[in-house]
Amino acid sequence: MKKECIAMLLAGGQGSRLHVLTSKVAKPAVPFGGKYRIIDFTLSNCVNSGIDTVGVLTQYQPHELNAYIGSGHPWDLDRVDGGVHILPPYLKDKGGTWYKGTANAIYQNMGFIENYSPDYVIVLSGDHIYKMDYSLMLNQHKQTGADSTIAVFDVSKEEASRFGIMNIREDGTVYEFDEKPREPKSTLASMGVYIFTWSVLREFLIADEEKKSSKNDFGGNIIPAMLSGGKKLSVYRFNNYWKDVGTIVSLWESNMDMLSGLSGINLFDREWKIYARNSSSPPHYAGGKSVISHSLVSEGCNADGEIYNSVLFNDVTVHEDAIVKYSIVMPGAVIESGAVVEYAIVAEGAYIRANAHIGQGPKDFSGAADDWGIAVVSAGTVIGEGKILGAGQMAEGDML
Fold first, then answer.
1. What is the pLDDT of residue 107?
2. What burial letters (b/e) apply to 50-85, b meaning 16+ CB within 10 Å?
3. What is the DSSP string of 340-391?
4. Which of 48, 73, 77, 382 is most deeply buried (CB count within 10 A of its CB)?
5. Could you tell me whether strands 174-179 and 164-168 are parallel, antiparallel, or unpaired per DSSP bridges?
6. How far apart are CA 373 and CA 389, in angstroms?
7. In sequence order, which residues have a C-beta less than 8 Å from that of residue 221 and are 6 or more positions away?
8. Where do the H-state alpha helices sit in the chain?
């Protein structure tokens, strides 16, 4: 059945800058915000924007992500006509390859797209935290008659060299794309959110695939080719919170932003819910001696210690006399009595034994300011009794 617009969600990235947090899972499947996965924000944006057909392109460590998405029921995407579809690389009659780049990933799934004969295709990333109404962007795309509309976010001049930068005319059309420029001409950074008129994108995907030297990337190849080919590219300015949580620090900061209200993302907004798969855990329990302040504590948690300015996922246990502050504690982790966890990320199923000390606040750190960082304990790791993991250090295996 024909759809006006379908979404293609790129979720196959390795997320190597998240180190041990993505050693066994794709970045979009990393837990976020107490009960969500990163990909929940993009999937929820689709549903809330009226887009009911989503292809999720997976590749690196896809098993947990595939199981999490399942039939798409939590996002109301378990539909006969449309819905969510997992799209891994696959063999064809002429062979097959892994996805070579973002553009190649879409090229390999043109058959899926053409099943719905869409007028427009929105290409998204599964590893950003933001709330965005894609229907507003689509309306602008149609009104301007653009061949492609690219969502942009205004960053500081200091940050601009980290992004793909759009240089535009007064009417909002793009005349140049700079990938991580040393001396940026503007501060309009691409968010990796693109709307294409499908007939135009199809033409450029096929042409790009025929170029053996191409890296098959949207930012590096498709967008420049469309510009040099005289196509109309426009920007859509996004002025709300958007965060690429591709590093340990940015993941921690974005969780803290949500706690402090700096993100402006209201998890209690009934008009724009962030949907997620429920853990089916019992209600969280706060013991008689517990202290919980300015924190998100999810279902199934058993909290007897002190918790400040932290995000606790489902089924976390914090024993009496343990202290957790300015930290993210992922599902099933245990923190024993006397342990201190501060300015840290403790991954799923990790076990912090009695009197261990994880992380250190920036004001207490005696080293050079540039050496301070968030401490990280990998999934399933045991930190032995009394052991110390310093600021910015990472435990990839047991410390006994």
1. 94
2. ebbbbbbbbbbbbeebeebbeebebbebeeeebbbb
3. EEESEEE-TT-EE-TT-EE---TTT--S-GGG---EEE-TT-EEPTT-EE-T
4. 77
5. antiparallel
6. 12
7. 101, 103, 208, 211, 214, 215
8. 39-48, 63-69, 102-107, 110-114, 134-144, 198-209, 223-228, 248-260
152 beta partners: 190, 237
| Structural contact between residues 343 and 359, judged by C-beta atoms closer than 8 angstroms | yes
Q: In Å, what is the CA distance from 92 to each residue of 11, 98, 108, 216, 328?
A: 21, 12, 10, 19, 43
Mean pLDDT of the chain, nearest integer? 93
Query: pLDDT tens for residues 167-209?
Result: 999 999 999 999 888 889 999 999 999 999 999 999 999 999 9
The confidence band for 230, taking pLDDT boundaries of 50, 70 and 90, is very high
- Read off φ and ψ for residue 274, nearest 5 degrees: -100, 115
Residue 153: name the closest of 170, 137, 138 by CA.
Answer: 137
Cα–Cα nearest to 163, from 134, 137, 192 = 192
Two structure tokens written together for 43: 């999937």
Query: Over 70: is that where the pLDDT of 54 sits?
Result: yes
Asked whether residue 367 carries a pLDDT value surpassing 60, the answer given is: yes
Task: Report residue 291 as tokens.
Answer: 């202290």
Q: What are phi and psi of 311, to 5 degrees?
A: -120, 115
Instruction: Report residue 5 CA to chain centroid gap.
Output: 22
Q: Tell me, what's the pLDDT at 145? A: 97
Rounded Cα distance between 57 and 9, Å, is 6
Phi and psi, residue 284, nearest 5°:
-75, 155
Question: How far is CA 79 from its chain centroid?
Answer: 24
Listed in sequence order, the residues at least 6 apart from 362 whose beta carbon sits closer than 8 Å to its beta carbon are: 343, 369, 372, 391
DSSP state letter for 121: E
Q: Residue written as tokens 């245990």?
A: 334
Q: Is the pLDDT of residue 96 over 70?
A: no
List the Cα angle 82/219/140 in 5-degree steps.
Answer: 55
Closest listed residue to residue 5, CA positions, set 108, 116, 104: 116
Contact in structure between 383 and 358 (CB atoms under 8 Å): yes
Q: 301 pLDDT exceeds 80?
A: yes
Q: Give the Cα separation of 377 and 313 in Å (integer).
A: 15
> CA 116, CA 75: separation in Å to the nearest integer?
20
CA 399 to chain centre: 30
